[in-house]
Amino acid sequence: MRLGDGNDSDFIDRTGQSGGGSILGGGGGMLGLLIPLILSRFGIVGLLILGLGYCALSSLGGGGGLLTGGGAGTQQASGQSRLSPEMTRFLPAVLSSTDAVWTDAFRQSGTTYREPKLVAYTGGTQTGCGAGQAAMGPFYCPSDSNIYIDPTFFSELTRKFGAPGDFAAAYVIAHEVGHHIQNLEGTLDKAQAAQARAGEAAGNQIQVGVELQADCYAGVWAANAKAPDGTRALEPGDVEEGLRAAEAIGDDTLQRQAQGAVVPESFTHGSSAQRMNALRTGLESGNPASCNFSKV
């Protein structure tokens, strides 16, 4: 992808910090069954990839205390950054691009877009939803409207799951931004309420709809993303990279790899075909209204 420098984005680099606490500290919150469900069925590797969603961790007290940065621009938290020069440019550039696309989309609908922050960390970090760990994969915290990512996830996506490329990595971030859109729209609250009334299988289907809509929103962003010269940011091969990543993180593919069998009623993010279709729908339409995958 051809993206700008991202200097106007709310990007926070915590990769030089230590911390994070335990991986889970008790009860749920929004779709709180998600993490224990993945842990019990897929282990750490499954969790790493299926964490490409949003997590509601239990509050561990003052979890949002570290989120003190204000205003736009990259912020370096205390400690020496562990980001490569390439990643230091890439992460804020993707966030800035999503900000531009969604600010325009919300403006056209007569509303105002509130931009999220993207927090890069190493190993673990405190969040408004509790303690975050790299093993969770990238996640969005509705409580503080922040996206959290340990950039080593991208190496796992490339090496273990055969989904390399800058657009594959950008899709990961844009998916989390999709959950931020859902938070602003009230979809996450509706999903939480609907899941509270449903049994496990029906609750999983609600979660699948939420995740597929976020995939679609990622495609909408990519379809509308602009390069610094105003032309389309996508380059030849980018779409294929994104679809390959969506295929690699489908529930059926991961279940087949992890346990040799597929259990559709346990899906929480959608099959490979569903995830590819959702991303493709957003890419081809460029219109958020086409992303009617949510079942709430």
From TrEMBL:
Keywords of this entry: Hydrolase, Membrane, Metalloprotease, Protease, Transmembrane, Transmembrane helix
InterPro entries the UniProt entry points to: Uncharacterised_pept_Zn_put (IPR007343)
Topology within the bilayer: Single-pass membrane protein
Keyword flag Hydrolase: yes
Record-linked Pfam families: Zn_peptidase (PF04228)
Compartments, record wording: Membrane
Top-level taxonomic group: Bacteria
Cellular component terms (Gene Ontology): membrane
BP GO terms, sorted: proteolysis
GO molecular function: metallopeptidase activity
Entry's transmembrane regions: 33-57
Protein name, as recorded: YpfJ protein, zinc metalloprotease superfamily
Organism field: uncultured Sphingomonas sp
Taxonomic lineage from the root: Bacteria, Pseudomonadati, Pseudomonadota, Alphaproteobacteria, Sphingomonadales
